[in-house]
Amino acid sequence: MSDIESDTQRILQLRSELREHNHRYYVLDEPTVPDSEYDRLFRELKALEAKWPTLVTSDSPTQRVGSTALATFRQVRHEVSMLSLGNAFDESSMFEFDRRVRGGLDLDSDLLFEDIEYSCEPKLDGLAVSLLYKNGVLVQGATRGDGATGEDVTLNVRTVRSIPLSLHGAGWPSVLEVRGEVFMSKAGFERLNAFQAEGGGKTFANPRNAAAGSLRQLDPRITATRPLDFCSYGIGQVQGSLPDTHVDILEKLQEWGLPISRDLKRAKGIDECLAYYRDIGERRSSLSYEIDGVVFKVNSLPSQRELGFRAREPRWAIAYKFPALEELTELIDVEFQVGRTGAVTPVARLKPVRVAGVIVSNATLHNMDEVERLGLMIGDTVIVRRAGDVIPQIMQIVKDRRPSNARAVQIPESCPVCGSHVERTQLVKRSKGKETVSEGAVYRCVGRLACGAQLKQAIIHFVSRRAMDIDGLGDKTIEQLVDEKLIGSPADLYKLKYEQIIDLEGFADISSKKLITAIENSKTPTLARFIYALGIPDVGEETAKVLARSLASLERVQKALPEVLTYLPDVGLEVAHEIHSFFEDSHNQDVIGALLSPDECGLQLQDQGELSAEFAASTTLGGFLDKLHVPSVGPGAAQKLADKFGSLEGVIKADWLDMRQALPEKQAKAVREFFDNPDNARHALAIEQQLRDFGMHWQSEKKVVEGLPEAGHTWVLTGSLELMSRDVAKDKLESLGAKVAGSVSAKTHCVVAGPGAGSKLAKASELGLKVLDEEAFVAFLAKHNISV
Ligand code: D41
Which CATH class is domain 95-321? Predict the structure, then answer.
């Protein structure tokens, strides 16, 4: 075979493979190869096409993105008009529609009482376009425009990955115009907006606007970067034959590689249509894209033809809209609420408005940054949105409607509940050896438990089921206890007397005794529950568990330096600072003291004990030095210092010559300068000392690992494991010294293959490697005293 012949064959094969992968990825959402494989095939095709430019065709996967911007869009006349859709907003309009359909059809007498078959599809909120395929190749894409004339957006639709540049399979009409909606998923929209905001670009109000703005770009290279998607819903001109029902036609389009709705269904009669509408309505907020209703169409094409259209609307189709999620209203005022941690958050008071069937008069504003982002002033007309069960949100303001007496939103200087000072939180970041402090978005009332709002929330949290689990103390009772000054801190709960409780609203003899017992029974919490119950800002149940499990005593948690806390899994510097300053606060210390004092509340914490080995061996000296964030010293240089000097003290005391032996001049100098500052040296030593006090010992990795049974062995995990997650399996193997890799090679020691294992298992058998199923793997672990 000649060079060009074999290259031509390879080009055709690559195109067909890439088309298939593309379809699996963008249409079916189930890719079968990793991105890297796709990229490799793509590059190979590009290289071959560069070698043989005459072999490039417009439907090659390499030709999606054009390279020139247009000055304007050309006008396109639609051969077959793009009709619009009539709307229904209630069930009676749907029954009316069904009656009109039946009335318009010359039904045989025996069909008079039969139900009409309708197709049902969600109504996507994007923009309608028409795609023209000639001999299976996409030759034109056009917007709907006014239905008769649209704009030529061929170069832009070609960049939409789910639109095939040529049809798959065979049997398509020689001319086929596919109509559908170009749209953007909710996730794509969020990503695009985040990206735009970061780069100072224009952000979009909703996915619909984002889709329209992205498709109508004169430069297709911009469109290509936008996460657009397509869904077919009908046909225009056709030369050739197609099935004679709407659903069958769409299913044919799907066979030819065009995306159609996953929720396309047939319904017999209007009642089934209404059931479909309700079902989709319930799933609306969990769909990955926005819809604004359901489109019902008479399924039979002969019937559609018989019904025809009136004005520009087909008599055989209707859009049954969902109630709007967004409405306009006025911002009457902004009030401030105080939360459990003292955060003072703005809440919008709105002129009541019905949104999707519910009267909305409040909306969250999160924090003052949000107020600033929206450019919100009191008196503004705003767009409120209520979706699913989430709290209503203000999406946008309507600037043109701002009254002349609009007022700025101002954060109060003192707490609206207790009058204490309100201060802005600070964000502490440490990088390159410097601590930088920036202003946070949150304002806090400094009143702590002296603030009634914070005290109530703190107690509600303290007694909650996942915290101290004190049953019988409802929010209303807590409010009463606080308002009547019967309690001023969680510790006071344990001092409540029967006589005080029985006087409370809603309490009688039995309920009072029950509450006393519940309080008594809560006195032996686990350490994790107790830490969680304290309500430390940003410390949820998981972090509380990590603290308890790793440090194993309240005393250590209380004393831990922020840097030491960052050695714990998933604890960042910010949370670490929150924890540290919580325990530094003298009022908090008093409350904890009272809770644990045998003379006062007498709480006894369970499972304090040995430090976990996990924490004790969680670092190396190199890792420690790296975490000090010495300017220009990364993990590599830190490791070199560790190897050379063996201890922190060694590094601090090292003379210049030794230092230069370990590191290049610039880094050596940086280390020197860092430790010449006595604060830095003292701080580093204090952290190291505390780590030692907490039982941490530097692992000199090599020595430890060499002694382990699987040291030097590489394992691969594939398929799904049922008894443990892959992460857990990986941890267990690593604890035996093994390395866990992502791909199988001749160097692989053993492969663990669960159900669904594919190419990796095949390769392992090909190479004759040792393969364990999950059961055998568990047995192997058991042999090394590791349980599941
Ligand atoms: O999902 C949609 N937005 C959608 C729009 C749909 N699923 N079906 C539609 N069907 C039609 C007819 C019945 C005229 C073929 C439509 C639209 N039209 C449509 N979209 C914009 C204007 C009309």
Answer: alpha beta
